[in-house]
Amino acid sequence: MKNFNFYNPVKIIFGKGTIEKIGTEAARYGKKALLVYGKGSIKNNGVYSAVTESLKASGVAFVEHEGVKPNPVLSHAREGVKKAKENKCDIIIAVGGGSVIDESKTIAAGALYGGDVWDFFTGKAAIKDARPLLAVLTIPATGSEMNSGFVLTNEETSEKFASGSAASFPKVSIMDPLVTMTLPAAQTANGAVDALAHIIEGYFTTKDKDAEMTDELVHAIARSVISSTDRILANPKDYNARASMMWSATLALNGLQALGYGGVSFINHAIEHSLSALYDIAHGAGLAIVMPAWFKYDLKISGPERLAKFGKAVFGVTAVSDKEAAEKTISAFEKWFAKIGAPLRLSELKIPAADIPKIAENAMALINMWEIGCDRKSVEEILRKAA
Ligand code: NZQ
Ligand code: ZN
Fold first, then answer.
1. Counting atoms of ligand 1 from 1, which one is nearest the CA of 47?
2. Is 37 left (phi over 0), alpha (psi -120 to 50) or beta?
3. CB–CB of 141/194 below 8 Å?
């Protein structure tokens, strides 16, 4: 097990009926909030009124910044920064999924910065400080509610880049599994694939294959994501399955999932970010296409040992050799993705194989920035396996 530092200051308030606590929590940090949300789901399911009534009851004023789109874009984040500055908002409240929380993290840092927020994503500027951010999570998927990272798309350049800083952790995240009951099945599936993607990146690219505690945590999160999703799709009103899924997705990217691995590579994410930057597809859908293809490619390079271990622990794979177990594990991923309705091929999302060189070229920007050590030819090979 490699040495590590672990720091995670996010206060989690979890469970039924917890959204009404947002006002009291927000009042600890400021008097005027920029209230950031998406395209309307929170108005249809009662979350918007629960949040705004609680803020009013606690004397927290708010200015609204609505319309964050899935795969949030730079122009909308810039508008949010302007609004936060002009209205002298001293806190940011995100109500929604990863897209809303990520744009809110951008705004929280941008509100205290004199330059353009895209500087945080290109490495031109480091984030020194940010307005306090509080989140009300409505979809289990990204883990953004309990981590310090965030992702934004520059729609002019088709670059989907990430940023992060110690100042970017939410102060508080409220997670009420009841609000996830209005999620369409496709979004439930996208979230499940994303949570699995977060744990497999580290598990399969670890620099230390003897970090048993983290391996076992990863197995447990994977089993929980899979069984909770199966239960939710069979019965969308199953509260305990919703709760288990919500907490599992948070644990899948709050730092714990990679401790002792000595640094991990986010290769599947680097490739997927190009798919969602170029075609505006859901992040989870893109990952379902990339992951099995990358497993097939990586099996030749890294060998079957990790895939065999994962498959035995998570999917109950039995086999006479590691090679057979590894192949069965990849096939178990594909079968489960298909079962929950996630796409497996670029063609299913009408992305032509002829675009593969363009996608690979786009992905190289992140691969180089994240120092992943994968060349363009290899990315094309991975994508061809997903065509
Ligand atoms: O916009 P509204 O109307 O709110 O609808 C949203 C959106 O259409 C809907 N939704 C959310 N909660 C709902 C609901 N519909 C009904 N009932 C509810 N309770 O779901 C749709 C998707 O929302 P979005 O926030 O885009 O989903 P997700 O949480 O998967 O976030 C995806 C974004 O996060 C980034 C992704 O790249 C993508 O841009 N990621 C962020 C990470 C991070 N900060 O740590 C890591 C991830 O790897 C990922 O890259
Ligand atoms: Zn992800």
1. 19
2. beta
3. yes
Could you tell me the maximum CA-CA distance found in the chain, to the nearest angstrom? 66
Q: State how far the Cα of 186 lies from the Cα of 192, in Å rounded to an integer.
A: 10
* Ligand 1 midpoint to CA 273 (Å): 14
Q: Is 99 in the pocket of ligand 1 (CB under 6 A)?
A: yes
Average pLDDT along the chain: 98
For residues 333-339, give the mean pLDDT.
98
**255 CB under 6 A from ligand 1?**
no
Query: Could you tell me where in the chain the CATH 1.20.1090.10 domains are found?
Result: 183-385
Yes or no: say if 275 and 290 are a contact pair by the CB < 8 Å rule: yes
pTM of the model: 0.98
Q: Give the pLDDT confidence score for residue 293 in this predicted structure.
A: 98
Contact between 273 and 163 (Cβ < 8 Å) = no
Instruction: Determine whether domain 11-179 maps to CATH 1.10.1520.10.
Output: no
Terminal alpha carbon distance of the chain: 37
Task: Delimit the CATH 3.40.50.1970 region(s) of the chain.
Answer: 11-179
Is the shortest distance between the CB of 191 and ligand 1 below 6 Å? yes
Q: Could you tell me what percent of the chain has a pLDDT over 70?
A: 100
Spell out the residues 6+ positions from residue 281 whose beta carbon is closer than 8 angstroms to its own. 275, 349, 351
Ligand nearest to the CA of 104: 1
The dihedral sign for the CA sequence 28, 32, 37, 41: positive
The residue whose CA has the least distance to atom 49 of ligand 1 is: 142
CA angle 54, 151, 211 (to 5 degrees): 100
- Note the pLDDT tens digit of each residue in 64-98: 999 999 999 999 999 999 999 999 999 999 999 99
**Within 13 Å, how many C-alpha atoms sit on residue 93's CB side?**
30
Q: In the beta sheet, which residues pair with residue 12? A: 173
* Residue 234 confidence class, pLDDT cut points 50, 70, 90: very high
The residue written with tokens 């993705």 in the block is 337
- Class of the 183-385 domain? mainly alpha
- What's the confidence (pLDDT) of residue 175? 98
- Which among 240, 238, 269, 229 is positioned nearest to 253, based on CA atoms? 269
* Residue tagged 């990315």 (tokens): 379
